[in-house]
Amino acid sequence: MNKMTFEAFKIFEPTTRPSGSSAGKWNRSKEGLSIFGLLNRCKSSLGVKSLCNILRCPLRKYESIIKRQKLIAFFVLSEHYDLVQNLRQHLRSTKNLRGIVRRIANFTASVQDWKNLKKTIDNLLGMSRAIAEYTSECDIFESMSSLISDDIFSVSYFLEKMFDIHESERTYRFVVKSGIDDTLDDKRRKHNGLPDLLTSIAEMEIVDLGDVIEECSIIYLPRIGYMIAVKPVEEDISEEEISAQFSNFDFLFKTNEILHFKSDRCRELDQTFGDTDAEIKQIEFNIIHKLSTLVLSLDETLKSLTDLAGKLDSIISIAMVSKENGWVKPNMTDDNDHEFKIEEGRHPLQEMCVNVFVPNTTSYGKDINIQNLHCYYPILDSSRVCILTGPNGSGKSVYLKQVGTLVYLAHIGSWIPAVKASVPILRRIDTRIKATESISLGLSAFAIDVHQMNSAIR
């Protein structure tokens, strides 16, 4: 199928809508009335992507079509309703891990990335438990179960035990829970008690400094350590006056009328506490690095699992639409000489736009009785070429699109809107229904039509 055939059958139909960020510009697109829009009940972005791939690549192998039909038939059964709802609940929060794993490898993963990783792995494990008793019935279930290893459970366990989500969201960085590392917990206790300790030390220092200062506080700067920051009563004070008035302290520097000194108490703080915040972050980094290494070792496994989850989402979506609209499974044959017949077929999009849709039967083949053909007349012995006539507005174009669309749906493994259908495997589908003119083609409308006809009969 070429691009024009996809457009004629409305497989995809992107439409534009006004952008909220650029008023007056029609630069945002969404899906209009199309086969993709009809079949898309996916719960995840992975499922939407997988459904697009299914629609873009009709199957030509008999075994592949039958395999997909069996998957859809499994999810259509009413006895599997609870399983379908359980899987869709897990698929809702399943994310594409490719970008997340890449950012973890580059040490640029955000808190949201870690949250999505945790949710996705938990959902994958939840799906594996839900499908455990059905692995022998579906190949996709067996593939997912075979990829679930002890390392996947380990990642889930460590994320649950280590990742402090609430504190991480507050500080905008990965925070390790308490109880993981004794040294980390000890330094956190010291760090949490620092504000009160520094306040009490500042009160003692202000007594030693006397009345010549207006404000006093204890601050910390990397590489310099703890120091006293004071604001003298006299704003314009020289270095000689500073040395005379604060002889018991080592003067460091002056910024914005604030004087900075080193005292004996500050040196004691340097020896006792040091840079506790940096030490805490270093310990957390070492723990996160070990977890990241484990995640990166499962890179290919996680990608395969999420791909299977997306495929599962898209197949469930097709099955739901098939069941809700009363579609049937077509009988596919790999013999081109076999009878082609669709009993009371319906156009899947057109019937959504009218109050009453009249079904149409389509058939051809060597064994077809010519007397039973009501809408067209065979002109070859093989009954493969038919001429369809009728007045304007009688539905000729809709009928042609209906036949092509139903055959297309059968070749993606989907069920089709009909009472009964038998469809042979086709090599290609060509159309001359809709011509898309473009300056880049360098062809007139007539030349485009001739080109399409040439492609169809060649």
Automatic annotation (TrEMBL):
One of its GO terms (cellular component) is nucleus. InterPro entries: DNA_mismatch_repair_MutS_C, DNA_mismatch_repair_MutS_core, DNA_mismatch_repair_MutS_sf, MutS, P-loop_NTPase. One of its GO terms (biological process) is mismatch repair. SMART domains: MUTSac, MUTSd. The keyword Iron does not apply. GO terms for molecular function: ATP binding; ATP-dependent DNA damage sensor activity; mismatched DNA binding. Residues 383-458 form the DNA mismatch repair proteins mutS family domain. It holds the Pfam family MutS_III. Residues 30-353 form the DNA mismatch repair protein MutS core domain. The keyword Transit peptide does not apply. It comes from the Eukaryota. Keywords: ATP-binding, DNA-binding, Nucleotide-binding. Belongs to the DNA mismatch repair MutS family. PANTHER family: DNA MISMATCH REPAIR PROTEIN MUTS FAMILY MEMBER, MUTS PROTEIN HOMOLOG 5. This is MutS protein homolog 5like [Alligator mississippiensis].
